[in-house]
Amino acid sequence: MRRHAARWVLGVSLCAAFAAGMVTVVGPDRPSLAAEPREAPAPSAAVARQVFDRFQSLAGEWRGRSTKGWDDRMSFQVIASGSAVVQTSLFEAHPGETMLTIYHLDGDRMMLTHYCVAKNQPRLQVSSVDDGGNKVTFSFRDATNLASRDQGHMDRAIFEFQDRDHFTSRWSFYKNGREEWMEDIHYDRVR
Description:
The protein folds into two domains: 1-29; 32-189, Beta Barrel (Lipocalin), CATH 2.40.128. Helices cover 16% and strands 49% of the residues. It has two helices and eleven strands; from the N terminus they run αβαββββββββββ. Strands 2-3-4-5-6-7-8-9-10-11 form a ten-stranded antiparallel barrel.
């Protein structure tokens, strides 16, 4: 009887942990999904909507300058009846390569999927909004084409908006249990 009660308690605990996002099922139906839950809850649906509206307002052409000295040409385009924002980047740091990031709402969460030259697709969600909405942090949620979280991938991104025509982004790269921040990229609107 005690063994059955212990199994029941363990089963209820696992169900509660799964519902809270503390356990991720990876199996035949999700073979390429690597995930590690984040502690901080996502901001409210209203805040997520405000962040999405801000990313929609970036539509147009941008020029970026990295603190490591290279340039970036980037564009933002609102697509799919206003439900997604596509960012296309042509980095001097990766000659001949284009990277793509798609921003969208997922229910009450603000998400991004980054299609990286590392050949994986990390999904990040807004984990904090500070400074009156001028500082937005996205944190790793899960990824496709990532066998393990220790495989190299973009893990966190911080956007700081100075005004309508200027912002800074900063991304971190995570590999083998270690997160490293990359350089800041300062963007100016071209048109």
